[in-house]
Design brief:
643 residues; mainly beta; Neuraminidase; Immunoglobulin-like; 6-stranded antiparallel beta sheet; 5-stranded antiparallel beta sheet; 1 helix; elongated
Length: 643
Amino acid sequence: MSLAGSKRRGWSHPVLTERVVGAEPSHHPRTAGRRLSRWPWLALSVLLASVVVGFIAGPTPAGVGDIGYEGPAFTGTSTPTGQKRAESILWRNDGYWWASMWDTVSQDFEIFKLDTATQTWASTGVAIDRRAQTHADVLWDGTKLYVASHKYAADGTLPVAGRPAYLYRFSYDGATRTYSLDTGFPATINNYNSETLVIDKDSTGTLWATWMQDSKIYVSRTVGDDLTWGTPFVLPAAGATVSVDDISSVGAFGGNKIGVMWSNQVADAVYFAVHEDGQPAGSWSPSSAALQGLRSADDHINLKSDGSGRVYAAIKTQQTTAALPLIMVLVRSAATGAWESHTVGKVSECHNRPTVVIDEEQGLLHVFATAPSSPAYSCNTTGGTIYEKTSPLGQISFPSGYGTPVMHDADSAAVHNASSTKQNVTSNTGLVVLASNGKTARYWHHFDPLPVVLTPPTADFSATPTSGTAPLAVTFTDRSLGAPTQWLWDFGDGSGSTAKSPSHTYAAPGLYTVALTVTNQSGTDTKRVPDYVSVSPPLPDFSISASPSKRIVIRGASAQYTITVTPANGFDGSVSLSVAGLPAGATASFSPNPVTVASTASSSLLTVRTSATSKANTYTLTISGTSGSLTRSTTVSLQIKRR
C-alpha cells in the first residue's frame, strides 16, 4: 500500500498476525535519507542560515512541514504515552523496536512492532491491558517482558482505592517473534490509581515499584517470585512526605543497587535514596538532595544509568525567571554519590516533560522535551514540538536554544509526552522516541539510526585501591568515552600495559603518577593524574622458623629445636616466645626468651622434656613469637615412642 495520502488516515489489514498501522514519512532534515515534506527549498535555506550562525536558534519556522513520522490513531483513550515522563513504553529486542500502544480495533493496549524500513507500526495482536485511560511502564530484562499498567490519576489529584495497578509478564519466542502472557499474570502491584508508577529489577531478580499515594512516596517489591508482591510501604527516608502533585521513579544502577528519586515541592527539593541489593526491604540509605533550592522541584522525572554506575535524571524545575534553568540533567557520581546539575533549557525556552536516553558507544546524552511551536511560540502545557538536545557524556554541556526539532505536526502543533526506552542505545539499536498528539489523537515517532560518527576519544580511568603498603596490587579500570580501540598505560614506576583494564603491583614505596593514552581512528587523548597511587613503606615485621622440623624421642627423653627470629622492614625489638600443643606431662623452655632482634636474625634453643607417662604419638607443636601487636608462628613435629 502506498504511503501517499495517508496523513490523518490510518488503515488496518492482516499481515500474518499483525495489524499494520501506517505513518506518513515526514522526515527530519538533518538525517541522511530524510526530507522535509513541504517547501523543501525554504526549509533548506532556513537550516543553512542556522548552520551559518553555528546553531539552530529556535523552533522550525511555520510552513516547513511535518518532522518525524505520524502513526496510528489512539481514539478511545488519552495520553497513551504517559505524561510526566517517569515511565517508558518502548523496548528493543531481537533486532526490533516494540511498544505498548493503543489499538483502535480491539480498544485495548497491545504489543506493537516497528518496521524501520517503512516506519510503520504493526499490532502483534497480543493484548496487555484492556482498560482505557491507563499508563504503562515497560521493562525488558533480556529474557522477560514486564509491563506495569495503572489507571491514571489526574495531575494534582490524590490516588483512589479500587483502581489497581497490574504487572504483566510476557515470554518471547524468537522463532515466531511473538510474545505470550505467562501463566498467573497479571499480578496486582497495588490497589490505587496514580499519576506515575515505575518499575525496575535489581541484581537479585527482585522487582521494585514506586508511586505517590496519600502525599507520600510508596515503594513495593516482589517476594520470592514475580507474581507475589509484598505490602506497599512508605519509603523510609527523610523527605518522603510530599505534595499531591509529586511523583517518583526507580532505577537499578551500579550492578548491585536500586535507587528511588522523587520530587518534593513542599521542600523545594529532588531527593534520592539507595537500597543495596539483597538487604531487607526497609533498609535504605539516608536520602540525599540531588537538587534543592527555591522552585527547584516539579513532577517531571526521567531516570537512567550508565555502565559505570553513574545515574542521570532529566527533571523540570518551577523557575519563573527567563534566564534560570527549567529543564536540567542531574548526574550522580559512581565514586562519591555526589550530585551535579546541568542546564538543558531555560525558562525562556519553555521546555517540559523531558526524557533522557544514553548512548555510551558514542559518548552522548540525548534529551527530548516538548517546547512551543510556531508561529506564536506560546508557552503551554498542551504540546507543541518535540525537540532534541545532545551533550557529550564526558563533559556535559547542552547548547542554548530550543534544540533540534524531531517531531512536529504542521497541521496541529500539539505533539507532546515523548517516551522512549529504559535501555541504553547503540549504533546497532538506533533510537526511537514515541509521542502523541492529543488534538488529533494520533501517535508520532522519531527514528534515529545513530550511525557511528567517530570522534577522538576522551581518556578517563579509575583504580582501586589507590593507597596502601608495599607491595600494593592495584586494578585499573578504563572509563574512556568515544569508543577507543587502543590503550597505553604508564604506571609511573617504569612499567606499563596495553590492556584495556590492567592490574599492576607496585613493589616500592612512593607516589606514582599514572597516565592513560587512548586512541581510535579519529585521534588520541591522554589523561595524566599526578601522585595518583600512594604506596607506603611496609610495616616493620618479623618471621619465625624452626630447625629441624621433626624430632623423634623415647618417652622421658628431651628434644631440642633451634628457633630463629628474622627481622623484616627494619624491625628492631624483643620477641617473646611460647609453644602450644605439648603432650601431657611434657614441659618446654626457651633459651633465651625473649629474643632481642636488631638488624640480623637471632635464635633461641627450644627444649621439650617428655615424661615417662607421655603418650606415644606424633604431636604438632605451634611456636609463636609476639612483639607488641605482632604475632608470628611456625610449627614443628614431635614423635614420642615407647622405646
